[in-house]
Amino acid sequence: MAKSIRLAKRVVAESDRLAKDLSDRFNRAGVFVANLMSSPGAGKTTLLEETARRLKGELRMAAIEGDLATDRDARRIEAAGIPCRQINTGGGCHLSARQILDAIEGFDLAALDVLFIENVGNLVCPAEFDLGEHRRVVVSSTPEGDDKPVKYPIAFHHADCVVLNKLDLLAATNFSVEAFRRFVRGLKPRIPILGLSCRTGEGMEAWLDWVRDERRAVAEKSAKSAR
Amino acid sequence: MHEVALAQAIWRQVLSEMERQEGRRLVAIDLVVGAWSGADPESLEFALGLLIAESGWPQARARIRREPLALVCRACGREFEAEDLNLVCPGCGGLDVDPVRGQQLLLESLEVE
Predict the structure, then answer these.
(1) What are the sequence ranges of the domains in chain B?
(2) How large is the C-alpha radius of gyration of chain B?
(3) Euclidean distance between CA atoms A129 and A11, whole angstroms
(4) Residues contacting B15, CB < 8 A, separation 6+
């Protein structure tokens, strides 16, 4: 005789549990964790290289790089002066909480101020998976077109900060900064939108200030809960 | 794009439940797939089909109920269903919306005999 067994289980329940575990560990250590997402080629790695170069005397940073293959990005970040772990996902389209748990084994979290997680270049799947991060940063770039926010609304909906990279290429494209801002603000009225160029350095200071402010907030909260 | 991994996660839960149902046969797996769950129903069904075919219950089926994305507009308060992930509020044209349904990927029940 047929019988129905009710389970009502969230399929990603285990992933959520691991993300909560990560979040607790990050908070205990007082390390600010930012999860960077973008389509391939928007400039996540270049942004991290520039951030590492400019902040390495001031903040203790590390990075985790997610790519389908190669350790090219990890070598770039290490060359910029901060420790980095590469995760190769094989065919995987996003980083998972399990992979981050394995990757942080190599880091002394309490000795870090900031941990950057560079997700797999993909504006779809990474948005669905919590890695225990404090903030999600979506990096967009001018050659991609100004309508990315409405075409990939989920990534932008879950974002806490939007970086618009490659401002130096603006004149070579038909990108409208005004339209981009309108699309982003339509989805998230109060989100910071930081236009910059990693190549010329324009706008970098506002991004570095955002990192500094977020890091300070996490450190203060962690110190308060430790008392 | 990650439906194989999701199918494997579902399958682990199915197997662990079937261990408790000793001697019974799996007939169907009932799933709810929300439009904003990040899973594509066809790909998920295909991936689960491969796992089922290799199992001790090759006749079992994966039955998927699709749940549309429902949103509430923060500006005007209107609740609406978003077709094709178009998040624009039909009431005021705003985009500042919060999902209320359609985010989940749920293993709802198993049918056994």
Answers:
(1) 3-68+101-112
(2) 17
(3) 12
(4) none
Q: How far apart are CA A74 and CA B63, in angstroms?
A: 43
**Among chain A residues, CA nearest to B20:** A5
CA–CA distance, B111 with B113 (Å, rounded to integer): 7
> For the segment B30-83, what is each residue's pLDDT rounded down to a tens digit?
999 999 888 999 999 999 999 999 999 999 999 999 999 999 999 999 999 988
- Residues in A closer than 8 angstroms to B94, CB to CB, are 186
Q: Can you give the pTM of this predicted structure? A: 0.87
A166 lies in some domain: yes
At the topology level, CATH places domain B3-68+101-112 in hypothetical protein PF0899 fold (3.30.2320)
Environment class of A155 (CB within 10 Å of its CB; exposed 0-12, middle 13-18, buried 19+): buried
Mark out chain A residues that contact chain B at CB-CB < 8 A: 1-12, 14-15, 92-94, 96, 122, 124-125, 127-129, 150, 153-154, 157, 183, 186-189
